[in-house]
Amino acid sequence: MLRNTLIVSLLASSALTLAVASPALAVSKTDRAREAIAAAEAKLQTAESMGAATDAPRDTAEARAALASAREDLKSGHKDPAIQEAIRASALADTAIGVSQQRKTNALASARDAERMNAEAARDQVAAAQGQAAAAQDQAVSAQQQAATAQRQAEQANARADNAQQSAAQSAAEAAAARNAAAIAAATPAPAPQVETTVTTQQSAHHPVRRKVVHRTTTSAAPSSSTSSVTTTTKVIPQ
């Protein structure tokens, strides 16, 4: 509908322009047909340079056909049909140009929208990457703290192990010393008991005399005379 309306409008404006030409500037129909054909050719070349053959292939093909008909009519001496076909070709070229411009505008808008969406997606990705980096950094700090705690616990465990090893070595040394003492005690014979002997001698004419003799065996002293008496007391002292 838009294309048909545009064609009708262009045809009417072109016809009106040609109809109201000043008599002083009036030219022959042949010249007018040639001018109309040249104008249509220029517009068609502009449309094709803008990509109308791809964007509006139907309008471009119809414009090219109308331009060919205008040339053929002019060559055959049919000036009025040539002018009308040239005007139609020009209108079709204008339509193709409009379609190409609209598609280029839409493509530019789509490209801008895509660029904006890509930029937003890139910002989201950057934000997500920053969040992941922050989380990774927090995990690294937590891991370092856990490693430090584990190292302290390992050092404490090593210290306890060293203390236990030292205690075990000391206990082993004490046990060895006890075994050595027991072995020495078992190998050494028990000493003989000490015998304490008290000898008391009584004489008739003198005071009694008591002597204490300590030796390991018991010795009995014989009386020195018939007038003396000897009393012997023996006490065993264990070693």
How does this structure look, described?
With 239 residues, this protein is mainly alpha-helical. Among the domains are: 2-115; 194-237, no CATH class. It has 5 helices and 3 strands, in the order αααααβββ. The chain has helices spanning 2-19, 29-49, 52-55, 57-75, 79-187; strands at residues 194-203, 209-215, 228-237. A 3-stranded antiparallel β-sheet has the order 2-1-3, with no helix packed on it. A hairpin with a 5-residue loop joins strand 1 (194-203) and strand 2. The longest helix has 109 residues, at 79-187. It is rod-shaped. The protein starts with a helix and ends with a strand. Mean pLDDT is 79; it is low at 15-26 and 217-226.
How does the SSE layout of this entry go?
Elements: H1 2-19, H2 29-49, H3 52-55, H4 57-75, H5 79-187, E1 194-203, E2 209-215, E3 228-237
Antiparallel strand pairs: 1-2, 1-3
Helix pairs in contact: 1-5, 2-4, 2-5, 4-5
In short:
With 239 residues, the chain is mainly alpha-helical. It has helices at residues 2-19, 29-49, 52-55, 57-75, 79-187; strands spanning 194-203, 209-215, 228-237.
Mean pLDDT: 79
Work out the radius of gyration: 70 Å
Please give the share of residues in helix.
over 70%
Discrete helix count:
5
What is the makeup of the main sheet? 3 strands, antiparallel
What is the end-to-end distance? 142 Å
**Strand tally:** 3
H/E element order: HHHHHEEE
Return the structural class: mainly alpha
- The coarse silhouette is rod-shaped
Strand content: 5-15%
Unreliable stretches: 15-26, 217-226
Strand order of the largest sheet: 2-1-3
